[in-house]
Design goal:
It contains 19 helices and 18 strands. The protein has 494 residues and is an alpha+beta fold. It folds into 4 domains: 5-141, Alpha-Beta Plaits, CATH 3.30.70.270; 145-218, Alpha-Beta Plaits (2-Layer Sandwich), CATH 3.30.70; 231-364, Ribonuclease H-like superfamily/Ribonuclease H (Nucleotidyltransferase, domain 5), CATH 3.30.420; 380-492, Endonuclease III, domain 1, CATH 1.10.340. The radius of gyration is 29 Å and the shape is elongated.
């Protein structure tokens, strides 16, 4: 089944719309004899079977959609979804748009007469600037939320049980593309839906419902996607969430945000920022895949250096993210945080929610979308020639090392913009800041373990135990170990 996203990119900025409806749509499809017998049912007057495609059959929408697509194939500016057929006229002026619309509508009428497709005159919306189409309003200015959906949200009573919360949140999620702050406001309600949470309705839940209803009254107008215009994605991360926005010529086309999982919340800031770009590309895959002129804007300056370095120099987790981005022709550029107003608002708005995708979000993503990269379960220790006991020892000594404690905090929270603003205790790590990460309490430089000061003499003794010379000892150690000045210490300790 096609989705609204399959139609939006074909719509002009300025246009004229007509919406026609197929009359008794399914009943216009005749069943062949074997299929007809499969619909046999009992009645007080004996067995009966359907001769036409009945309502209520699970595959009926797909069967009808395929049949309608075959009947209307080749008609330009005609977009059928289910029993709705949208006719779009476009042009540089209102007169040209109307002429184009009339020609396309006439072609549709001729085709319907040829294939005997009956239409409903009662549901006809003829040559209008705004039209309601699949739960949204298509207009000459862009995509709008359906006022009836907004009204339905405003009139919904406050939930009285978990099922009610699920219905309310599920219905509101249908408008998620218009609501950048939805994740933040829904967070108290999401917690009520957790399996291990006892139902207890509090004033904060009442406040969340009221704020959601306030948000749906302030939905923005989204621009139609234009395949010929350059694309910009703004992405950002916070301690608890990711946010992104697809833009063209400075106007939003679509919003997206999600909460970070508990594991992702412990990522280094540079990893969160890179993950936000991956999330943006995968969420907007059907807009980005296979095209040029894609600019990814980030407010995390150290991330720019990662994209310019060889892939092997990046930590394992970042390597997986960078590999996922190889599907897209991205140009990653730095933009100061104050200018990243869209994605910054989104990421701050997610708060600490659960990382689940609604059914609407799943269906909104085109079937061409690649499998989502799984970076959460990458353990860098699996790639090291180090025993588990040694890693535990390194973690324990790291916890007692004041310098590495400060370094770990800087890695997780983000580095300053310049070296002079960095704390003196960790300033010597500034040249390799893009390669540092934290996993399971251990600090890594790319694929090498950062050794606490208290363990360095022991490591030097292990390195020199082979008696192969200073240069050879260093080549052996640099595959696994790291600390500032390690090379000179190994050579001086011969």
């Amino acid at each position: 089944m096609p989705t609204l996203e399959d139609v939006l990119y074909k719509l002009p900025k300025d246009g004229v719309f007509t919406l026609v409806d197929a009359r008794d749509a399914f009943l216009q499809c005749k069943l062949d004899e074997p299929s007809s017998y499969m619909t046999t049912f009992w009645t007080p007057w004996g067995r009966k079977r359907w001769l036409k495609l009945p309502f209520g059959v699970s595959v009926a929408p797909e069967v009808y959609q395929r049949k309608q697509h075959e009947l209307l194939m080749g008609l330009s500016g005609v977009e059928p979804i289910a029993d709705d057929i949208l006719v779009v006229g476009c042009g540089d002026s209102d007169e040209e748009a109307e002429c184009d619309h009339d020609a396309k509508l006439l072609a549709l009428m001729v085709r319907c007469r040829q294939v005997k497709l009956r239409l409903s005159i009662k549901k006809l919306q003829f040559k209008v600037p705004d039209v309601r189409f699949h739960g949204h309003i298509l207009s000459s200015t862009g995509l709008k939320a359906d006022p009836e959906k907004v009204k339905a949200v405003l009139e919904m009573p406050h939930p009285s049980d978990v099922k009610g919360v699920q219905r309310f949140v599920g219905f509101v999620t249908y408008l998620a593309k218009f609501l950048p702050r939805l994740s933040e406001v829904c967070e108290p309600l999401r917690r009520l839906m957790d399996q291990d949470t006892i139902w207890h309705w509090l004033p904060k839940h009442d406040a969340a419902v009221r704020e959601i209803k306030q948000l749906v009254t302030q939905t923005p107008v989204l621009r139609y996607y234009n395949v010929s215009k350059p694309v910009t994605i703004q992405s950002d991360s916070s301690q608890y969430g990711l946010g992104c926005c697809l833009m063209q010529e400075g106007q939003p086309v679509a919003f997206a945000s999600r909460a970070l999982t508990p594991t992702e919340q412990n990522y280094a800031q540079i990893e969160k920022e890179c993950l936000s770009i991956v999330f943006a590309c995968q969420r907007f895959h059907h807009y980005l895949y296979g095209r040029d002129n894609i600019t990814a804007e980030t407010d995390h300056k150290p991330l720019i250096a990662i994209f310019s370095k060889p892939l092997l120099n990046a930590p394992k987790r970042l390597q997986s993210m960078l590999l996922a981005l190889q599907n897209y022709n991205l140009k990653v550029v730095y933009k100061p945080g104050p200018e990243m107003y869209v994605s910054d608002t989104l990421s701050r708005a997610t708060a600490s929610g659960t990382h689940t995708r609604s059914m609407h979000e799943q269906h909104a993503v085109c079937s061409l979308q690649t499998e989502q990269v799984d970076v959460e379960h990458i353990n860098q220790a699996d790639y090291l020639n180090v025993t588990d006991q040694r890693l535990i020892q390194i973690r324990q000594h790291t916890d007692r090392d004041g310098q590495l404690q400060a370094l770990r905090s800087v890695i997780l929270m983000g580095w300053p913009d310049c070296r002079e603003e960095t704390a003196l205790a960790v300033r010597e790590y500034w040249p390799v800041k893009e390669e540092l990460s934290v996993q399971n309490g251990v600090i890594f430089k790319s694929q090498r373990v950062v050794i606490p000061r208290s363990l360095r003499p022991e490591m030097l003794a292990c390195v020199h135990s082979s008696h192969i010379g200073g240069e050879a000892c260093y080549r052996q150690a640099r595959d696994t170990l790291y600390w500032p000045g390690m090379q000179s210490e190994i050579k001086d300790c011969q």
